Structures are given as structure tokens and as C-alpha cells.
Amino acid sequence: MTPRFDAIGMVVSDMAASVAFYRRLGFGFGAGVEREPHVEAELPGGLRLLLDTEETVRSFHAGWRAPVGGGRLSLALRCGSAEEVDAVYEDLVGAGYHGELKPWDAFWGQRYAVVHDPDGNGVDLFAPLAQ
Fold first, then answer.
1. 96-to-73, 90, 120 alpha-carbon distances in Å
2. Listed residues 23, 38, 60: the one ending a domain
3. How far apart are CA 122 and CA 115, in angstroms?
4. What are phi and psi of 81, to 5 degrees?
5. 3-class DSSP assignment, residue 115
6. 67 in a domain, yes or no?
7. 93: left (phi > 0), else alpha (psi -120 to 50), else beta?
8. Which residues does 14 contact at the CB level (< 8 Å), separation at least 6?
9. 3-state DSSP assignment of residue 8
């Protein structure tokens, strides 16, 4: 038997805020899950994004404490074009989310930007630049 990559799990401090952020990016969380202690969204290719509240994790990991600060995890989301990178970034920043790195043309050939989710995790937005 060989284990296969199946899911990305994140511990969130505010489930409703995190669900709202990731829904805005197109993640398909079910209706009414904002008050649940554990939620899942299926991703393209069969992977899943799992969100658990801090309280949920404490319930089965005695002595667990939330890490301090963000930047321990980042998700990278491929956009369809450089213009989409700009539009998604502007939408999120306009909705009050922290824009960490404004869209720019990276030397590695991508339009690239970074926004933080409600817990300070980086969400990278990118698209290949036209060649």
C-alpha cells in the first residue's frame, strides 16, 4: 500500500471568517457550515481543503496551542490570466483582506500576488505571463 496525498488541513481561529474568505476564492463549502467545528471543500483533482477550529483540535490533542503568527502555510492558486490575478487581488483587498504583495511581473515568468487569509496564512495568486 502506498499513501496518497488527499487533503490539506488548516486550523482556523474563526470558522465563519475563514469560510467566507475561501468561498470568495471559489472553494465550495456547503451552506450553513460557518458554525461547524470541522468543514471540508473538495478541490479539483479530488483533493480536499479541511478547516478545523482551534477548539476542535484541542479536543483531541491534549495541550495543543495555536502557533503564534502567520506564514506557516501558504496556498498557491493558479489564475487564468495576469488580468485575473489583478482582479482577484483587488476584490480581496477591497473586501478588507490584507494584501501582502501587490501584483507584479515576477522574474520567473508569472504575474504574482499574495493576500493573507483571516489567520495570516499566505494565499499566492499567479498566472503565467504571455510568452
1. 21, 10, 13
2. 60
3. 6
4. -165, 165
5. strand
6. no
7. alpha
8. 118, 119
9. strand
Residue range(s) defining the domain that contains residue 79: 74-128
Same domain, 41 and 86: no
Residue 54: all three cell numbers together: 482551534
Are 43 and 78 within one domain? Answer: no
The series of mean pLDDT values per 10 residues for the chain, 131 residues long, is: 86 95 95 94 91 86 76 86 96 96 93 93 92 61
Q: Residue 131, Cβ neighbours under 10 Å: how many?
A: 4
Please tell me the pTM assigned to this model. 0.87
For residue 17, give the CATH number of its domain: 3.10.180.10
70 touches 32 (CB < 8 A): no
